[in-house]
Design goal:
268 residues; alpha/beta; TIM Barrel; six-stranded parallel beta sheet; two-stranded antiparallel ribbon; 9 helices; globular; binds zinc ion
Length: 268
């Protein structure tokens, strides 16, 4: 439920290559979720349908592959939206305009900078950086309804100088609880993003402790996403992630069709 293709400016993977790889792994559904980050800080411009704004062209491309592969796999129309507080209303209108099956709401920047920008980590501790990120994410998800699940809740950890080495749920419990409760209150979900697993950080995004806390607080909607920008990353670490999610108490995972969750059993 989280796959990029050459429609994203940070991927060169042809859509059909991503789909064929998923078919070869025996998958029954795949959501293509290319980036749409409006009003992005200029530091680098990796995120993008918004260079062209051609959502129609994107969806037409997906429509063609949906038909072509209909017998083998269900192709779901997704998008990964970059959330920012001032875009809240505009994003509501944007998602209402198109027939998306699934919308991921992601926070890719804070303090007006991309999380990869070293300037964010020059003059403050990693703990302060995490706090600033989580506060921004909380404000973002409260400011709009233009998403179904929140993408990689602890995305900031990917770019900290020491990555997730010193992360603990307890350090940020108050902010993380507020994020998870906002998600639940709004009838949204979160994703278990496996990129950090197959790229060697030892934990999915978010961390297992946050997935467990989400379940404790009553969270039920969870999707799996490899965040694959190339075919060999499709479905990366899904078996490990599935076990983690089951161990956190989940019995079902979700896919989305026409913006509604479909619950499927998590098999052991
Ligand atoms: Zn993302
Ligand atoms: Zn992504």
């Amino acid at each position: 439920m989280h796959v990029h293709t050459c429609f994203s400016s940070d991927s060169t993977a042809p859509v059909e290559d991503q789909i064929r790889k998923a078919i070869s792994l025996g998958m029954k559904h795949i959501a293509i979720t290319d980036h749409q980050d409006y009003d992005y800080p200029a530091w680098h411009s990796i995120y993008l349908l918004s260079d062209t704004g051609d959502t129609e062209g994107y969806l037409n491309g997906l429509r063609a592959v949906r038909e072509k592969y209909a017998e083998q796999i269900e192709v779901l129309f997704g998008i990964e939206l970059g959330l920012q507080v001032h875009l809240g209303e505009m994003l509501n209108k944007y998602v209402a305009k198109y027939p998306f099956d699934f919308v991921i709401g992601s926070t890719h920047c804070y303090d007006g900078r991309d999380t990869e920008d070293p300037a964010l980590y020059a003059d403050r501790s990693e703990e302060e950086a995490c706090r600033a990120y989580f506060q921004t994410e909380l404000d973002n998800i409260a400011a709009t309804d233009a998403y179904d699940v929140v993408g990689h809740i602890d995305f900031v950890l990917r770019d900290l100088p020491s990555k997730n080495r010193y992360f603990t749920y307890a350090k940020y419990a108050e902010l993380l609880d507020e994020i998870l409760l906002t998600v639940i209150r709004k009838g949204k979900g979160i994703e278990c993003n496996t990129k950090t697993l197959y790229r060697g950080m030892g934990q999915p995004g978010p961390d297992t402790s946050v997935l467990r806390r989400y379940r404790e607080l009553g969270g039920e909607i969870i999707t799996f996403g490899s965040d694959a920008h190339r075919p060999d990353w499709i479905g990366g670490s899904f078996e490990v992630a599935s076990k983690i999610v089951r161990d956190c108490g989940f019995r079902y995972y979700c896919i989305y069709k026409e913006r509604s969750p479909v619950f499927l059993p998590l098999e052991s």
